[in-house]
Write a structure and sequence with these properties.
- The protein contains 8 helices and 7 strands; from the N terminus they run E-H-E-H-E-H-E-H-E-H-E-H-H-H-E.
- The chain has 251 residues and is an alpha/beta fold.
- It has a single domain, classed as NAD(P)-binding Rossmann-like Domain (Rossmann fold, 3-Layer(aba) Sandwich).
- A 7-stranded parallel beta sheet has the order 3-2-1-4-5-6-7, with helices on both faces.
- The longest helix is centred in the middle third of the chain and has 29 residues.
- The radius of gyration is 17 Å and the shape is globular.
- It starts with a strand and ends in a 14-residue tail after the last strand.
- The mean pLDDT is 96.
Length: 251
């Protein structure tokens, strides 16, 4: 049985990806900061798919917590075949000159440093096995910038650069490195971005049908079920009504 580690599984893409991988027969390591939601997901996976699940409650922004949790994995979970770096967020949408430095640091620490911390801990095992697959959840914000996006876009540009760099450095070890770059998607993303303002979050998707978490899980499933000689570098997904990061058609 293959083992997958997915970060940021308490909501949105991560939660749906964990469920999908369990359905595909993976035993899963799920991580996140909200213990009750992790425990609820663990219970759901076990009841639906009867696969082993390990839930780890920690913050990917804290390198020491990452080390403590991942360096003490039970033996049956140590051989990780698939890493999904999903944990990420946007904080704030004001023009750069009006933005909050705390928001900048929160995005950089989660979207970039968290991905680095987790990857550095998992990759040595993949190199030892001369196999493995890493899927980084990026964004179309890593492809083009939009008003108010500045630092969030910068972090996702970094994710795209890291994905390409990892792919170059790890190809000789038989490790595949992919990414998924979604457009507008209705998860907790906008609620977090607007610091809990539900009305602002709701208006982001007004007049159009955004992507759903299941759409990203579909893309992930396609990536990880390709034969060994095939690597999907990146899948970019937009809602039909969204042309790019800042042009959409709202009814």
């Amino acid at each position: 049985m293959k083992t997958a580690l997915i970060t940021g599984t308490t909501s949105g893409f991560g939660r749906e990806i964990a469920l999908r991988l369990a359905k595909l027969g993976y035993q899963v390591i799920i991580t996140g900061r909200r213990k009750e939601l992790l425990e609820s997901l663990e219970k759901e996976i076990k009841e639906k798919y009867s696969v082993p699940v390990l839930s780890l409650c920690f913050d990917v922004r804290n390198n020491q917590q990452c080390k403590e949790n991942l360096e003490s994995l039970p033996s049956e979970f140590q051989n990780i075949d698939l890493l999904v770096n999903n944990a990420g967020l946007a904080a704030g949408a004001s023009p750069f000159n009006e933005s909050n430095l705390d928001d900048f640091e929160r995005m950089i620490d989660t979207n970039v440093k968290g991905l680095l911390y987790i990857s550095k801990l998992i990759i040595p095992g993949m190199i030892k096995n001369q196999s493995g697959h890493i899927v980084n959840i990026s964004s179309i914000a890593g492809i083009e910038v939009y008003p108010g996006g500045h630092v969030y876009c910068a972090t996702k540009h970094a994710v795209n650069a890291l994905t390409k760099g990892m792919r170059i450095d790890l190809v000789k070890h038989g490790i595949r490195v992919s990414s998924i770059s979604p457009g507008m998607a209705e998860t907790e993303f906008s609620l977090v971005r607007y610091h809990g303002d539900a009305e602002k979050a709701k208006n982001v998707y007004k007049g159009l049908e955004p992507l759903h978490a299941e759409d990203i899980a579909d893309a992930l499933e396609f990536i990880v079920t390709r034969p060994p000689h095939v690597m999907i570098n990146d899948i970019q997904i937009n809602p039909t009504q969204q042309a790019n990061t800042y042009i959409s058609h709202r009814k």
